[in-house]
Amino acid sequence: MNLKRVLYGAAGLVLASAVAFAGQADQAKLQKLRNPAALTEKAPATYKAKFDTSKGPFVITVHRDWAPNGADRLYNLVKAGFYDDVRFFRVIPNFMAQFGIHGNPSVMAAWRPAPIKDDPVKQSNLRGYVTFATAGPNTRTTQLFINFKDNTGLDKQGFAPVGEVTSGMDVVDKIYDGYGEGAPRGKGPEQGRIQNEGNAYLTKDFPKLDYIKTATIVP
């Protein structure tokens, strides 16, 4: 018996099994993310979400009493792994960094018709504060932005912060901003194409975008 061949054969089987398991896990994760109605757990009064990014880690401390609907949505998205491998697609110097369009178009197709109701604005959009993006009344879904400076003018427009960056704001400041505003007003990515084509579009046409490796709820 060729022992080396047996060992290599066994190693190959283990590797194949590991790849198959990883593939099944990815499919299970995607299946979960395609069901917003199942991701409605009530968030703790205060919690922390750690974002490991291509520039380094930062931590957002979320306060449910600031914006209950937004805090619950963010908690469920992070727990489900929604923000893993998600790009900072709209980064405007001296304004804000926006993210939250999933890289898989089928996942985004599930979340577009699943908005949450507005929260009253209880906190101001100060530097480091984190807020859901909105396209009008009761349209918040998955997109967030981090304020680079005090953007108090957003308060009267209904933008309700859900938390603040309490660690790693220096990392947030380094997020790539070279593409600027999105199309058609600027040279950055077009949101409609991100929704429809996902990360394939961003990787090809905007390769310098920074991104979230993983986002997790931490103690």
Structure description:
There is one protein chain. With 219 residues, this protein is α+β, with helices and mostly antiparallel strands. The protein has one domain (34-218): Cyclophilin-like (Cyclophilin, Beta Barrel), CATH 2.40.100.10. The protein is 32% helix and 22% strand. The chain is built from six helices and nine strands. It has helices at 3-33, 68-80, 105-111, 169-173, 191-197, 199-205, and strands at 46-53, 56-63, 86-87, 90-92, 96-99, 129-132, 144-147, 161-167, 211-218. Strands 3-9-1-2-8-6-7-5-4 form a nine-stranded antiparallel β-sheet. A hairpin with a 2-residue loop joins β1 and β2 (56-63). α3 crosses α5 (191-197). Residues 15-22 have low confidence and may be disordered.
